[in-house]
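Before we proceed, please read the two lines closing this message. Let me know whether the structure tokens fit the sequence:

…
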Amino acid sequence: MLIKRILDILLTMIAVLLLGPLVLMTYVLVKLTSTGPALYWSQRVGQNNQLFSMPKFRSMRVGTPQIATHLMNQQSNPNSFLTPIGSFIRKTSLDELPQLWSVLKGDMSIVGPRPALFNQDDLVSLRTEHGVHILKPGITGWAQINGRDEIPIPQKVALDAYYLAHQSVWLDFKIILLTAIKVLRRDNITH
């Protein structure tokens, strides 16, 4: 959808201009408070189940297993892997800001289903079954404003499928607005 791509680029450029100082400050804080690179590149499943590298500010210590947070809860305490400012940048969603690069590059959209980790076979399979895999993944999405990490995978995919069936510029703006409100309130963030 050409209109969606144009809006993605326009909104990303505005976000970069407005949030540039915050991005720089977060970069410096990550570097000063933990060893290793400030950016973490994660293998994610993109549009049509193609893998791509997605950047985030590193909130976890170097060497943390690449598994979904809800799975990490089953093996150990995820908080034990957080860097000194990891919890703060996750709760404020500052760790997500480098994904603006992925939007400019065309791997992601501002709004769409959150990209699955390369090893989340259950999520990828269910999304493919429901046709959601044809969408570009997003920095935020319908599932994020309706529960984020708190909802089980089948419910998350149902919300992604709802977005697929009802996507529009107006729904995207609604999701962006509700995302901003949820980030400011720190709703549905566990770590």
User: Anything to note?
Assistant: The mean pLDDT is 91. Residues 2-33 form the longest helix (32 residues). DSSP finds eight helices and five strands in the chain. Helices lie at 2-33, 69-75, 86-91, 99-105, 121-129, 142-145, 153-166, 169-185.
